[in-house]
User: Fold this.
Amino acid sequence: MEEVRVRFPPSPTGYLHIGGARTALFNWLFAKQHNGKLILRIEDTDEERSTQASIDGIIDGLQWLGIDWDEGPYFQTEFAADHIAAANRLLAAGHAYKCFCTKEELEKKRETALAEKKREVGYDGTCRHLSAEQISEKEAQGLDAVIRFKVPERPGTMFYDDEVLGRIERAYSEIEDFVIVRSNGKPLYLLCNVVDDIRDRITHIIRGQDHMTNTTRQVLLYEALGAKLPVFAHMPLTLDLQKRKISKRSHGEIVAVQFYRDRGFIPWALCNFLCLLGWNPGTDQEFFSRDELIEAFSLSRMSRVNSVFNFKPGDPKFFTDPKLIAVNEHYLRTMDLEQLGALVRRELEAEHLWEPAYETSRRDWFLATLGMIRDRFHTLKDFTAAGRAYFSDSYDIDPKPLAKNVLKFPELRDWLPLLAERFAALTDFSALESERVCRELADELAVKPGTLINGMRTVLTGQLAGPSMFDVVVALGQERVVARLRHIDRLFAAA
Assistant:
């Protein structure tokens, strides 16, 4: 049985965006499912726009997502000789020809065709039938020439079978003789891509539907080069709410993989979300482990309809697709605590909040605390923002609960230090005992327990809501709780 070989061939002209990441993910899933190979090929022939920073960003993005490859990265520019050799073979076999028409001449012909309302406004084949003598004469004059592929003059249509869209047909008469080598001698993407896929023995090409105009022409190149046609599968595009294709140019960093890495998203959560953009498992299942997704994935369940990336620019609450936020929240709440601990550690280290004891003597406390506080968090960044009070004595107090739960009750200036002294006297600093002491004090003061509890939460964590208050008290520890409640004066003074 032929080995399945797929490829991900990004152009290094910017960061890895989520559309490219989805393409890489689908190819990776297909390769894994069939025990095949994924080849990473950097298509760096655009010398003016290709940068090393973009190459590094693409590789870093794939590695962060956990999308590994089996061969490469190969660089398209390393195989320039192969591309030229293929163009020369096509010339020699009569499948291509030199075209000496200038840009000005081509533009004038196009304008004339448009003015005459001709159905076809593409290249008219002026140089297609030049004799060898005419070609030599033009070359002697030093005229620049491109190389055009000679589309067969056949009746009917050419076709290929697409694994997603079914049979795709196009009349030969509708395909103009297209350029495969520029006048400066550099081959174009259309040819380079085919030559590289043939050399890399690619069996399946899984890419976006925006490449379909290329595919019909590339099928002709495969045929002319005498190579076996790969299986094509064209994925639906991902659009924004205005039905525009998501892109670096139109949407900026919001569609960059790096954006989500830097904002504390879990790599597999992003993968899980991306796989559901244009693919349907055929069940109600929304969350997949790596192995589950590899087993469930199939090209036959790819949608033919474009998917929508639902985000509203300028909306701080939904700064990205709400579905992606929900998927990330799910993984924060349910993933193994050891795995979560490794991810949170990186966030704490970045904020200089990590303590070596979290890996040794306080390991159990560290993991238990993550398990307690994670339910209300959206991203990993929340552990060093909303959850900062658990790892540092330097943390912000949210102005809303400060006003509502503390400053509104000036008596707390005396009550909370009093509570601190009673907490300090406890020999069993447990959730049960700390709650008993708090409620007893509320009874003595003839106030609602919630007044003390809500004020205490704000002072101790800086937040309006969170886990059970007395579980929080135990997690913070007796010494830290007592110290913070004793120094409530600073909050009133600052106000």
Remarks:
- The mean pLDDT is 93.
- The longest helix spans residues 18-33.
- The radius of gyration is 32 Å.
- Residues 6 and 38 are 5 Å apart (CA to CA).
